[in-house]
TrEMBL record:
It holds the Pfam family CC_Cfap43. It is found in: Cell projection, Cilium; Cytoplasm, Cytoskeleton. The keyword Protease does not apply. Keywords: Cell projection, Coiled coil, Cytoplasm, Cytoskeleton, Repeat, WD repeat. It comes from Hemiselmis andersenii (Cryptophyte alga). It comes from the Eukaryota. GO terms for biological process: cilium assembly. Its main location: other. One of its GO terms (cellular component) is axoneme. This is Uncharacterized protein.
Length: 324
């Protein structure tokens, strides 16, 4: 849980940040797992609600057929992605290559086809019987209700005649009365069926609205879950980025250290070369000063030796002396 996570002040060491990354990833898995449990439960609830709607649609379809009206029923169903392992389910329509069948499989397929054909012919016979029964019963609400109410609505043969006896007039009036009662009762039953149908539609809509409310709540929860996951993923990204930058910085420092060490070696070598050069320079300076002193001494001696010679160009003589 979050109690295992380090505080921001504790994320100074590399090992601590690596541990924090794994803890955050584990927290992300837990959040997703918890939400997925709710999603799977909602899918189960949807299946239960679909069963309820289908059950009510059975009665609603019966009423529609009795009322002889056209109405499209609401038939909710599961989406393909709501089935467990739907990613691994391959529909026959997705296979474009003809399936290879062995001899045994072909024989079994032909046998199944023959059995299906036999069942179809048998069902056709049953359908003919059902159609005959439907024709006999009339297949209408009025005929069924007539039988249920036990009302004899057979119209007298002389009903439309002009000259009627008193007894015939009495029978016609009785027929009109029974017909009126029948029509009133039929209208009551029709209204009762319409009321029942309206009630069933309302119950179906209530089921759908209740499930939509659950779905809407789960959708809002998903936004919160996504926000929480994004927050954890951002922390993971920042921690990994800091680790990468730390590695890059360590590599850069290593390269700079190598360059510094090389510069120190070059400095030491240059220092040794300068010291050696200074020694050579000092030795050369000593030799130079010695030669210079000797030259000055020779110059002085030459001047003393030829000081008494009149008319002698001493500078020319000195140059010749230095060129010797």
């Amino acid at each position: 849980g979050e109690s295992l996570l380090y505080s921001h002040m504790e994320l100074t060491k590399r090992e601590t940040r690596i541990n924090q990354v794994e803890l955050l990833r584990d927290q992300i898995r837990k959040v997703r797992s918890t939400f997925n449990v709710e999603v799977r439960q909602l899918v189960k609830d949807k299946g239960a609600e679909i069963d309820k709607v289908d059950e009510k649609n059975v009665r609603l379809q019966e009423i529609i057929e009795e009322l002889k009206v056209q109405e499209d029923l609401i038939k909710p169903a599961h989406a393909p992605c709501e089935h467990e392992g739907w990613q691994l389910i391959v529909d026959d329509s997705e296979i474009k290559v003809e399936k290879y069948l062995s001899a045994a499989e072909r024989a079994q397929a032909e046998k199944a086809k023959a059995e299906e054909e036999a069942r179809r012919k048998a069902n056709e016979g049953d359908d003919q019987i059902l159609r005959a029964l439907s024709d006999m019963m009339g297949g209408t609400l009025e005929v069924k209700k007539d039988a249920e109410m036990g009302v004899n609505l057979e119209k007298p043969d002389f009903y439309d005649a002009e000259d009627l006896t008193d007894e015939q007039q009495k029978q016609c009036r009785e027929y009109d009365r029974r017909l009126q009662v029948y029509e009133e009762e039929l209208e009551k039953q029709r209204k009762a069926l319409e009321t029942e149908a309206k009630k069933i539609r309302g119950e179906i809509q209530a089921i759908l609205d209740a499930f939509d409310s659950k779905l809407s709540s789960l959708a809002e929860e998903k936004l919160s879950v996504d926000a929480e996951i994004y927050q954890y993923e951002l922390q993971v990204t920042l921690l990994l980025d800091s680790l990468v930058k730390e590695e890059d910085l360590a590599l850069h420092i290593g390269r700079l250290q190598k360059r510094t060490d090389a510069a120190h070696l070059d400095l030491q070598s240059a220092t040794a070369s300068v010291a050696s050069f200074r020694e050579e320079l000092d030795a050369f300076r000593e030799v130079y000063e010695t030669i210079l002193n000797e030259d000055k001494a020779y110059d002085k001696a030459l001047r003393r030796e030829f000081a008494d010679e009149a008319g002698l160009n001493f500078d020319t003589l000195s140059k010749l002396w230095r060129k010797r």
